[in-house]
Fold Ig-like domain-containing protein.
Amino acid sequence: EWETPLPCPIISYFSVLAVVLKTSEESPSTDEFNRVELSCLIESISTINPRIEWKKITNNKPSYVYFDRRISGDLENRAVIREPATLVITNATRSDTAKYRCEVTAADDNKSFDEIVIDLVVRVKPVVPKCSVPKSVPFGKLAELSCVEEEGFPKSQYQWFKNSEEIPEDPKSSPKFLNSSYTLNTGTGTLRFTSVIKEDAGEYYCRAKNDAGHAQCAPQKMEVYDIDIVGIVLGVLVVVIVLLCITVGICCAYKQGYFSGQKQTGNNYKVPAKGDGVDYVRTEDEGDFRHKSSFVI
């Protein structure tokens, strides 16, 4: 009795003649300076010595990092190949964040080529952010606090704290900030008070955080003071009164003739000073001078 043969061996035979790749992690991530594996597993192949290549893709431009059985490019001296085709980066840096393509060429297989793309992210911990907090703000005026950190990857998100307590994005969500009027942008790190009140005074600091960690700046004190409207008005009045008194005094002095010029007459004519040993004698006629006889001699 004839039995119908099963098709499984035929299917299995054709699968062996095709190179097939897979990966255990399509989007691996790690912190900077740590070890990370880019998994490239050969699921099926019949070629004994296939050609294995790794390429790094930056801005849609591929460049070799493993070619002709050697590590090259950005990963030279920082990576190894773990058989058969997994790429292991022993000391990842922020510049390693990119897409990587594993390519396997098997000349003896019917399907002689396969590839997989792995998206690697290297996380970088934020550094201490630069914080700007105004030292003093008039009551009822606008105040803006800023926080900037540019080293972390992925991009940092920001938190603001007042007197060691986190400031919520919505002031109405917390009884302690219910009377405050502000907007908080966690993406840019800007805390903006539209109209400060006495309760807004305190010590403020900012924290930058991402998946790799966080860092924060030192606390800075902000004071809120009242504007003395009465004092300002009184000061202006005093200045105006002083200016009026000076003006009246100058006018009175002009009227009294203190600033008018005095004319010389014959009665107040002064005798010239003696000089060069010459003696002068005044006669009865006003202004007539003669030399003494001694001078003539």
Observations:
- The two ends are 183 Å apart (CA to CA).
- Residues 104 and 114 are 6 Å apart (CA to CA).
- The first strand starts at residue 20 and ends at 22.
